[in-house]
Amino acid sequence: MRHFVNDLDDLVSEGLDGTIISAHGALKRLDADAPAPVALRSQLDPQHVALVSGGGSGHEPSHAGFVGEGLLSAAVCGSVFASPSVDAVLAGILAVTGEAGCLLIVMNYTGDRLNFGLAAERARAMGHDVEMVVVADDIALGDASQPRGVAGTLLVHKVAGHLAEQGKDLQTVAAAARDVADRVVSLGVARDTGTVPGNDAVDRIDAAEAEIGLGIHGEPGVETKTFEALSDLVEDMTERLQAEIAHDGPIALLINDLGGTSALEMSAVTAAVAQTELGSRVELLLGPAAVMTSTDMPGFSLSALPLTDDDREALTSATAVPSWPTAGAPVKLADHVVSSPELPASALESSTPSSNDEVRSLLELACQSCVDSKGELNDLDAKVGDGDTGSTFAHAARGVQERLDQLPLDDPEALCRSLSALMTQQMGGSSGVLLALFFEHTAEAVSDSDWPDALARGLHGMMELGGADVGDRTMIDALSPAIEALQDGKGLQGAAEAARKGADGTQTLGSAGAGRSAHVSQDSLDGVTDPGAEAVARVLEAMSQGR
């Protein structure tokens, strides 16, 4: 079990309880006698049309998270990816429906249509005025007779909720909801399927691929394609959506996280959409936000609605529901880019290039070692840190490789200052600034000291500001003995051997005193070489062997 649960049978009801608790009094629920969990608005006006939606759980915050002022009156929550029963829907209808009647907003899945539909018939037989709107906004299946209902359903909720809040009659609210349902179009894409708690993950999509048009219950998509650049994928999706929109006017666009996509990636999706023809038509942007999820599915969906004046008013009207993504006009990025302050010229820019074949060769060997070790160092760092040591060192190494012809290779002081500048420009994290300090302090000493003593001065400066010492499980555990070997006249070979011994020794140092591993338990560190020390050892080994 890879989920945080007590009992799988209680997960939906406990999840609803958490939603109610965090709603700060805005929600209630039916008691345990209800056939399924049902969320209700705390304050209901019987003179207003009631809006009831729902379906299978696993799409949170849909639908219970959208119960509240200006949106739903109730949400009926079935088991994960399973429609609630007829009795459960009927209980939801009866709990919120007054003399103004009730509108059911249902996504186009057979179970939902049947259970909500029969519940509506039974409510009518009891004397209630009930209408039902079925949303089928997914364009993935082309001319399919039964398109699925997906995230576009939420735009139907908002328009209907706005009109109900204004006191419009049932026929008006239902007609507007059907109109939006007819016009909204959606398309999703994912790198993997979502996981149903208690079930094994479905391994259907290759790591190098993305599946376009898969359903929010993990149903297979219409096409699987090799995943290359995000911009190409978004261009493909927006072109398909454009082809389904009836006119070329402004649109509202909902950018939805399907549950397992990072906020950073969703922001990149938003930027990519803005560069497309469809993006240029967006007048109201909702999201990016996780609003119609598929448990932990790593993917996203786009829902586009051609805008009318009524839509614009409804989508921008106020709601107290915290899960609702505020609709606003997207900005033009060019209008929000300002000039960067001018920084002092770096040592790299102010130095005069010069040649030294031996120094160049050593730098080439060091840099190539970092590039070649990227994957192994990342894997090592994933055990004790955030898994990016290899990428960090490789990025800095490529920066040096690209500028070899610009470096003052025959001027030790200028070279060290240039390398320090390159570390601050090219190398992120603590490693970048530590190595910048190392080279900067080495530069201060190299003009009146030999290389080993100057390097020792550099190490001292790095340790003084960085706060780490030998034995703290950092790169110093390899760098310090290597420099001592150089000072003892053992040359590069001796330095490489000392660095290797120091790096390997970090496996048995126990808890870390500084650096990436300082917050990791000793059990996790035992037998694992510090990635920074390993990087230093590999660089010196490459330099000594290639010389």
- Flag low-confidence runs: none
| CATH architecture verdict of the largest domain | 3-Layer(aba) Sandwich
Number of strands: 13
Q: Using only CA atoms, what is the Rg? A: 31 Å
Strand order, main sheet: write it out.
9-8-7-12-10-11-13
Number of helices: 19
Can you give a write-up of this model?
It is a single chain. This protein has two domains: 8-196 and 205-332, 3-Layer(aba) Sandwich (Rossmann fold), CATH 3.40.50; 352-546, DhaL domain (Serine Threonine Protein Phosphatase 5, Tetratricopeptide repeat). 44% of the residues lie in helices and 13% in strands. The protein is built from 19 helices and 13 strands. Strands 9-8-7-12-10-11-13 form a seven-stranded mixed β-sheet, sandwiched between helices. A six-stranded mixed β-sheet has the order 1-2-4-3-5-6, sandwiched between helices. Helix 6 (230-244) packs across helix 7 and helix 10 (357-372) runs antiparallel to helix 12. The model has no long low-confidence stretch (mean pLDDT 91).
